[in-house]
Amino acid sequence: MARYTGPSCKQCRRESVKLFLKGDRCFTPKCAIERRSGTPPGAAGGGRGPRGRQRISEYAAQLREKQKVRRMYGVLERQFRRHFALAVRTPGMTGENLLRILETRLDNVVFRTGMATSRKQARQLVNHGHIRVNGRKLGIASANLKIGDIVSVRPQSTNLDVIRNSLERSESMGTPAWLSIDAGTRTAKIVALPERDQLETTIDEQLIVEFYSR
């Protein structure tokens, strides 16, 4: 399966915003956005020079928003297009549908529950068989979950340092209202689909809809 193998921090710098791709490092002064003041990758701030101060076109704004969201959730272009096509077929507002589809992916749910410090780490846990859905192994990180689904850690994996440390850190950060967490059993249940005000506030989903509607 194809996947991005380049430097994660370079993606954040390209979008000039924290995408939280490296877990705890994103909350420290070592974060590339903090150290380089959001400067895009490349010589002298992306080599843009005076052009960097020009207004970007409507198409460029739409493209950058799409790329930002795609990189934030760790989804490649072909899969992102499939998610968008499903959002179009789903009743409701296409942009909000797209964000709900991305949020209810198994890897993102594992990340939101605090079992992993990043979505990339969450995908590794899923791919390596450490996660259960409704008591059964599900090794497909892109699988979309529904209301009532229960996500848990495989009993043999509960003492893994990466999971234990992530859960301890998440206790002080809170969890989304659409998830119900049982810290004792290390399980999470989807009790509702996320509303727009519970989704990422830095995303302008309408730009993505406009990009694919060109």
Provide a concise account of the structure shown:
The chain is 42% helix and 8% strand. It has 214 residues and is an alpha+beta fold.
Query: Could you tell me the mean pLDDT?
Result: 82
Helix and strand run: HHHHHHHHEEEHEEH
**How are the strands of the largest sheet arranged?**
2-1-3-5-4
* Low-confidence sequence ranges: 45-52
Percent in helix: 40-55%
How big a fraction of the residues is strand?
5-15%
Amino-to-carboxy terminus distance: 29 Å
The counted number of beta strands is 5
Indicate the structural class.
alpha+beta
Shape field: globular
- Largest beta-sheet details: 5 strands, antiparallel
DSSP helical segment count: 10
Structural Rg: 18 Å
Q: Explain this structure to me?
A:
The chain is 42% helix and 8% strand. It has ten helices and five strands. Strands 2-1-3-5-4 form a five-stranded antiparallel sheet, with helices on one face. Helix 5 crosses helix 6 and helix 7 (106-113) crosses helix 8 (119-127). The two termini are 29 Å apart.
